[in-house]
Amino acid sequence: MSDTRRRVKVYTLNEDRQWDDRGTGHVSSTYVEELKGMSLLVRAESDGSLLLESKINPNTAYQKQQDTLIVWSEAENYDLALSFQEKAGCDEIWEKICQVQGKDPSVEVTQDLIDESEEERFEEMPETSHLIDLPTCELNKLEEIADLVTSVLSSPIRREKLALALENEGYIKKLLQLFQACENLENTEGLHHLYEIIRGILFLNKATLFEVMFSDECIMDVVGCLEYDPALAQPKRHREFLTKTAKFKEVIPITDSELRQKIHQTYRVQYIQDIILPTPSVFEENFLSTLTSFIFFNKVEIVSMLQEDEKFLSEVFAQLTDEATDDDKRRELVNFFKEFCAFSQTLQPQNRDAFFKTLAKLGILPALEIVMGMDDLQVRSAATDIFSYLVEFSPSMVREFVMQEAQQSDDDILLINVVIEQMICDTDPELGGAVQLMGLLRTLIDPENMLATTNKTEKSEFLNFFYNHCMHVLTAPLLTNTSEDKCEKDFFEKKINYRYCWNFLCTPSHSHFTPFNFFLLDNIVGSNKNSTICPDNYQTAQLLALILELLTFCVEHHTYHIKNYIMNKDLLRRVLVLMNSKHTFLALCALRFMRRIIGLKDEFYNRYITKGNLFEPVINALLDNGTRYNLLNSAVIELFEFIRVEDIKSLTAHIVENFYKALESIEYVQTFKGLKTKYEQEKDRQNQKLNSVPSILRSNRFRRDAKALEEDEEMWFNEDEEEEGKAVVAPVEKSKPEDDYPDTYEKFMETKKAKESEDKENLPKRTSSGGFKFTFSHSASAANGTNSKSVVAQTPPASSNGSSSKTTNLATSVTATKGSLVGLVDYPDDEEEDEEEETSPRKRPRLGS
């Protein structure tokens, strides 16, 4: 019994004037040799560690509040509080404190709250040693009382003495009786004085006075006094709002009368603080610190009492998930949980931990899965807020649930996929809810908050789950909006059918999404060579920007998972279609995605970019932007400047060999000339290496017969296919360039000679169905003075509006001399061919019109 009586929580006041819970334990008072005096000791109930060791100083002011709280200050900015489970335990410790200080245990404060400056200021005032004499509580004395209350607020000593006088004489109840009389008599002047009096008493910041003022008997009269602000022409109607407009709804009847009373009191006191009282000035901000503490401890008690009543919470969950529950009732239940979770934010970490574990045990996540799929916007919004509390508190708990759920459910009803669906189908034109959900998804997929265990890591398990079960849902709008005129095949193979989002038709059941196709705008702006469309709808563009932000986050944090996905889906090509959007913010999002990939300096990514000729849409966008000096212009140039500064050789060679003629006219920055310089320096180094090889070895390389060359070429292709087979990604789709480029000087020479042999012997070329096809500028056609185009240089369909500058592909105007892409070596035999290429009219760069 003694353990329960002495059970306490230790609180300290932080810099934000909020109470921090330091733990729960058992308090005792004993003599401590090191401190040379009687001290308060609190040992943790969990492990017996010492939570508090505080000497009872004879000059320290201890305050007893609400029968179960003892508050004091150990230093200038270090306030402590003990919250007792039982009043009897608080009384016992209070007696010990009073005994040490030689005080009567009946007092609520053991010392006067005073600082040195106040002591000096009022030391000449003899009345400070006595209680303040209050005027008699009569109508004709209200002005005098108001002046007295207002005058003491600047002095901590006098505030304390006035509070004691008000408490000892039961003065507040007498004042409230006068309020009723003034209101009946319509005595406006008296009501204005009572406003000043009650407001001043609140600013005395005394918990014992609050207990009287906020009791069921007095609180409505206190609110009534605060309606009559002299600064207002007409009094406010706060009591009417609290009694008629604000209705207390019990989703499940609360049988505990103390809990009901505490809920009512907390709501009304919060209303007084937030609505009725004016915002305190800088000089008044500490006047209501005790009022804030009063509300805080009330909320802690409410959450604790509800949490301990498992029967009540079990009934709430049962009704929330019951299909027979009507929509109005379900809305009230969800709003209750939203408020309940909001109250829990007042708890300290260890208490919040127990709180959310209780909710998880009762099934909060399966319940959210149901209500987030409902078509009631208010319910979905409240469910999203609850979900955000859970993710913020413990993303690991949410991840563990969805991975367990995946073993028993289909992909289309997984909680995370429901969340993604809500993000995509947000009805807000500004996508406010989608932004919130995107932030929650980013928290869930952030490896920084994932835990590692001895056997497995949460990171690998969850990311495998996410990319297998959820990633296709997240990217479906992106892939669908960047396809030509078809829905993404893999999207429907996964059996995930979305709603027709742009009509925002939501079904009550989330177990099967109604079919939907993303809106593809007819008004196409800036087609590329494949005539792929780009979404011009502002809301579509916003959604795609959010998805790209998440994908960019994945590139930075998920390494090989996102790399596999990008390669398998040819995702970067699809993203770069968005460079054609009329919405610059969306084009910048697409560019930022590519910039993050290049920023990794991963040769695997670099090879994918060069093979796919994926700089083409970026350079097209730069040229289309013309001479405009804007964010798009700066971002594109920064991308190339990064490649130059970091000296990424494979990308530098690709850019210079394929696009330099189109970029050399840009002279307001030295980026592209710098890239050309880097490229030429690398060629010189390669030439020096070549010259260091004995001439007999070099000459022997060219004396093999055509048959040997053909066998070597076949071996090289086979090796390349084997390498591709060993890679962790599948080959990209046919829309990309169909060829591998030679990676070394040796392969380049073998391929060059083999190609010439094929041309001479009129051998058949490999086609795309065979997996490979090379078209080099030094083929037979080049020798005859004509330029052959690369596989990416396809002529687009004629534009119906006659605008050729928008539809002409950059690659058609720049000869793709693939043979020199990686080899970086000049040969005497090729000089004439290079001169022919430079004089060809087809080599003029594309300029933005």
Q: Would you give an account of this structure?
A:
There is one protein chain. The chain is an alpha+beta fold. It contains 40 helices and 7 strands. Strands 4-3-2-1-7-6-5 form a 7-stranded antiparallel sheet. The longest helix is centred in the last third of the chain and has 21 residues, at 671-691. The chain is elongated and about 110 Å long. The model is unreliable at 114-129, 485-534, 700-704, 716-746 and 758-849 (pLDDT under 50).
Give the uncertain stretches in residue-range form: 114-129, 485-534, 700-704, 716-746, 758-849
Q: How many β-strand stretches?
A: 7
The share of residues in helices is 40-55%
Strand content: 5-15%
Describe the sheet with the most strands: 7 strands, antiparallel
If you average the pLDDT, what whole number results?
A: 75
| Helical/strand content category | alpha+beta
**What would you call the shape?**
elongated
- Counting DSSP H or I runs of 4 or more residues, the number of helices is 40
Q: What's the gyration radius in Å?
A: 39 Å
State the distance separating the first and last CA atoms. Answer: 88 Å
Report strand order across the widest sheet: 4-3-2-1-7-6-5
